[in-house]
C-alpha cells in the first residue's frame, strides 16, 4: 500500500501570537512551530499503522520553504519512509491543495491522509479540495479507518452521531480524534530520520484564490466573578444580564 500523508507546521499552542504590517501578516518571530497535531497524531500515525499491518510505504508531503524541514524530519522520526517538500509559499487552501494534487496525480497513491484541519487556520478545506482536483472519493472527519484489499471502511463524525461508509481505493481522508494514538519518536527514529530522503520539488505555480485582509486577536478574558453559594439571586442576575453565550 502506498500512502501519502499531508503535514504542515503550526504554532505551538503556548506561543504568544502577534501581527505585523497593519495586522495583515502573522509575526513568526520567536514562535515555536510544531507538526500540526491533527496531521501528526491521527493522519500520520494511522498511515503508519496500516503500513505495519498491510505493508507498503508512507510518504509525507508539505508545501512551504526550508523552514518546514524540522517538522518534516519529525514526521520521518515517527516512522515515515520519506518526505516531499513542495518549495513554495502559500497560506491559501486552494493553492496548497492544487500543489499537492499536481504532485500526486501520477504517483499512484492508494490513500491520501490529512488531518481534519490545521490548528492555526481551522479551515478544513485542503483535504476536500485535493479529492476534488484528483477526482477521488473523500471521507471527512473520519475517526476510524480499516482497509481490506481495495476497499476502505470508514467511520465519520456527523451531527448527532456517526456514519459508516465504504469506498474503493484510492481515497482521500481527513482524520479526526479517535483515528489513532499519538506516537513519540524514540532515539532510534530520530537518528534514522537524519538519513531518510527529503525530496524538494519545485512549485507548480498554483495561484492563490484568496488573500488575508487582516487578523485580530480574540477579546481578552474577563475577570472571574465569584458568587456566594447562598446568594442565588445574584447568580441569576449575573447569568441573565452579564453572561455571554459563546
In short:
With 246 residues, the protein is α/β, with parallel strands linked by helices. It is 27% helix and 28% strand. α2 crosses α5 and α3 (93-104) packs across α4.
Features:
nine-stranded mixed beta sheet, Rossmann fold, two-stranded antiparallel sheet, 13 strands, 27% helix, single chain, 246 residues, alpha/beta
What does this structure look like?
- The chain is an alpha/beta fold.
- Helices cover 27% and strands 28% of the residues.
- It has one domain (2-215): 3-Layer(aba) Sandwich (Rossmann fold).
- The protein has helices at residues 37-54, 69-78, 93-104, 126-134, 187-193, 232-241; strands spanning 2-6, 9-11, 19-20, 25-26, 33-35, 57-63, 82-87, 111-115, 138-148, 151-158, 161-168, 171-175, 198-202.
- The strands form 3 sheets. Strands 11-10-9-12-8-1-6-7-13 form a 9-stranded mixed beta sheet, with helices on both faces.
- The longest helix has 18 residues, at 37-54.
- The chain is globular and about 65 Å long.
- The model has no long low-confidence stretch (mean pLDDT 91).
**Percent in helix:** 25-40%
- Largest β sheet strand count, sense and barrel closure: 9 strands, mixed
**How many strand elements?**
13
Our estimate of the beta-strand percent is 25-35%
Structural class: alpha/beta
What's the architecture, going by CATH? 3-Layer(aba) Sandwich
Spatial strand sequence of the major β-sheet: 11-10-9-12-8-1-6-7-13
Radius of gyration using CA atoms only = 21 Å
Q: How far apart, in Å, are the first and last alpha carbons?
A: 44 Å
Low-confidence stretches: none
Task: Please tell me what the overall shape is.
Answer: globular
Q: Could you spell the SSE succession in H and E letters?
A: EEEEEHEHEHEHEEEEHEH
Main CATH class: Alpha Beta
Kindly state the mean pLDDT as a whole number?
91
How many structurally independent domains?
1
Amino acid at each position: 500500500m502506498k500512502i501519502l500523508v499531508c503535514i504542515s507546521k503550526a504554532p505551538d499552542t503556548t506561543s504568544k501570537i502577534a501581527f505585523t504590517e497593519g495586522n495583515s501578516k502573522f509575526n513568526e518571530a520567536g514562535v515555536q512551530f510544531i507538526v500540526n497535531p491533527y496531521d501528526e497524531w491521527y493522519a500520520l500515525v494511522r498511515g503508519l499503522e496500516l503500513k505495519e499491518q498491510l505493508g507498503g510505504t508512507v510518504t509525507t508531503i508539505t508545501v512551504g520553504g526550508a523552514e518546514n524541514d524540522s517538522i518534516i524530519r519529525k514526521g520521518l522520526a515517527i516512522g515515515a519512509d520519506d518526505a516531499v517538500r513542495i518549495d513554495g509559499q502559500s497560506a491559501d487552501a486552494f493553492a496548497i491543495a492544487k500543489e499537492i494534487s499536481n504532485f500526486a496525480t501520477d504517483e499512484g497513491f492508494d490513500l491520501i491522509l490529512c488531518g481534519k484541519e490545521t490548528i492555526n487556520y481551522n479551515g478544513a478545506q485542503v483535504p476536500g479540495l485535493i479529492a476534488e482536483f484528483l477526482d477521488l472519493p473523500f471521507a471527512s472527519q473520519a475517526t476510524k479507518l480499516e482497509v481490506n484489499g481495495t476497499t476502505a471502511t470508514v467511520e465519520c463524525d456527523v451531527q448527532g452521531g456517526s456514519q459508516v461508509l465504504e469506498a474503493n481505493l484510492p481515497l482521500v481522508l481527513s482524520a479526526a480524534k479517535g483515528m489513532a494514538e499519538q506516537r513519540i519518536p524514540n532515539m532510534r527514529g530520530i537518528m534514522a530520520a537524519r538519513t531518510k530522503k527529503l525530496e524538494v520539488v519545485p512549485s507548480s505555480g498554483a495561484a492563490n484564490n484568496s488573500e488575508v485582509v487582516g487578523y485580530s486577536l480574540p477579546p481578552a478574558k474577563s475577570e472571574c466573578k465569584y458568587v456566594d453559594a447562598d446568594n442565588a439571586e445574584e447568580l441569576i442576575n449575573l447569568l441573565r444580564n452579564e453572561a455571554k453565550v459563546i
